[in-house]
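Backbone-to-sequence.
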């Protein structure tokens, strides 16, 4: 069948199994972040375009090439968020949250939009789990968010990620560095791509992050920022590394990391995997001490990171880590006659009210086909309802995994089933407990 309607290039649906995996991963991450004091926030999927121009930076790839920008019917330019930090900062300012006790710590799960060339691990609509922390300047805050990111991966059972860190300094030390870059790249200006030639004067650091092979090759021998750090930035970086050592977190210092967004200062970091191909960065983040002020708020140190959820799921699949799944349906009611089918409809409603997942036949299948269906969806229990059951006022529950049966009354069935199902959970727990010898 040739389908006429397909999802737009670079987007992915989440069919139920995948949606369950996303939800499980997201809830786990929000839970872990909650232990670190990060509370969930939600911001709009679109913002005024200027917000991203100003924060992400006019000379970045994201703003120059990748944004989904359009004019709405009121004539305003709006943009689908390409990342989560700008919206979080705007929210922080708009709600006067800088007046609340600091640090303010937020976590979010969002969709992001970038017009990029779709490939494995690179989509046009993708999802991020992110955290932002406002009002903490201490290097221990940098190490704390890095530790949180590591704990997210550990909790999900992901292994083998490399943590790379760098410091990209502050506007003070960056001045000398930008000059050194202008001199270095200026000498090879003719070889640079057109975009980078335009960046040479305004923001030469962006050339370091260019994806064009020629610019990339030239950038490899460029001066590194670590040689230009001022004393404050160097001291900060040393203390971040010391704190990571205290956490026993291994890291590599990689002086080539500059990150693709303009707002970063001082600490930047990435978690990289080599098991999912070229798009191996699953998490990127860092400090952005200048951004709140840049967006006309009070001078507020800040930092955060974002994890790409599609890449994370790819990694979990590649490593054979079991993805979270929906709980199986507990009970499937099987009707033998039309009257029994009517009864199963209300029985199912009552069972659901008692908190158990229950299905009955809404298709009009034969008894055999209903059985087959229950098997296929992995039902934990089945229960046949027919003429004799209705006459006797009792039904038999069958536990599919063991074949064990139990007779329950139709009167008060929902409560009786809930009690039975709970008893089986407790019994199964006991059966699985390994007691030491002699006990
Ligand atoms: P990359 O270097 O791979 O382009 P980036 O530096 O643009 O990444 P960030 O803006 O820091 O990425 O976003 C944080 C995370 O979001 C990335 O580490 C990645 O896991 C994920 N991500 C970024 N862009 C995409 C995309 N187009 N498709 C899927 N995931 C993405
Ligand atoms: Mg990118």
């Amino acid at each position: 069948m040739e389908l006429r309607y397909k999802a737009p290039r670079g987007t992915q649906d989440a069919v139920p199994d995948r949606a369950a995996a996303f939800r499980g991963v997201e809830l786990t991450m929000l839970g872990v972040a909650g232990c670190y004091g990060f509370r969930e926030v939600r911001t709009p999927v679109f913002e005024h375009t200027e917000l991203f121009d100003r924060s992400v930076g006019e000379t970045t790839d994201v703003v120059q090439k990748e944004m989904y920008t359009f004019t709405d019917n009121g004539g305003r330019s709006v943009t689908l968020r390409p990342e989560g930090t700008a919206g979080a900062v705007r929210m922080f300012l708009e709600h006067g949250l800088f007046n609340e006790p600091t640090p303010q710590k937020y976590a979010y799960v969002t969709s992001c939009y970038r017009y990029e060339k779709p490939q494995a691990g690179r989509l046009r609509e993708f999802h991020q789990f992110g955290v932002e922390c406002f009002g903490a300047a201490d290097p221990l805050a940098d190490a704390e968010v890095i530790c949180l990111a590591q704990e997210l991966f550990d909790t999900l059972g992901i292994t083998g990620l490399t943590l790379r860190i760098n410091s990209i300094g502050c506007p003070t030390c960056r001045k000398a560095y930008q000059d050194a870059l202008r001199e270095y790249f200026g000498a090879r200006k003719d070889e640079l791509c057109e975009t980078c030639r335009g960046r040479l004067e305004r923001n030469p650091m962006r050339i370091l992050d260019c994806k064009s092979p020629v610019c990339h090759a030239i950038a490899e021998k460029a001066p590194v920022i670590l040689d230009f750090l001022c004393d404050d930035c160097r001291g900060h970086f040393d203390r971040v590394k010391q704190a990571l050592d205290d956490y026993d977190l291994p890291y590599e210092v990689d002086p080539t990391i500059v990150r693709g967004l303009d707002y970063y200062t001082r600490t930047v970091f990435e978690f990289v995997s080599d098991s999912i191909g070229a798009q191996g960065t699953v998490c990127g983040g860092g400090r952005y001490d200048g951004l709140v002020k840049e967006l006309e708020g009070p001078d507020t140190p800040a930092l955060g990171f974002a994890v790409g959820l599609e890449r994370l799921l790819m990694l979990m699949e590649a490593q054979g880590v079991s993805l979270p799944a929906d709980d199986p349906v507990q009970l499937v009611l099987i009707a033998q006659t039309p009257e029994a089918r009517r009864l199963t409809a209300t029985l199912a409603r009552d069972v659901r009210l008692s908190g158990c997942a229950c299905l009955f036949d809404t298709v009009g299948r034969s008894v055999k086909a209903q059985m087959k269906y229950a098997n296929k969806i992995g039902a934990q229990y089945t229960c046949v309802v027919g003429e004799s059951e209705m006459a006797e006022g009792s039904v038999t529950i069958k536990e599919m995994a063991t074949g064990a049966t139990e007779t329950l009354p139709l009167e008060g069935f929902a409560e009786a089933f809930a009690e039975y199902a709970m008893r089986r959970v407790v019994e199964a727990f006991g059966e699985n407990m390994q007691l030491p010898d002699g006990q």
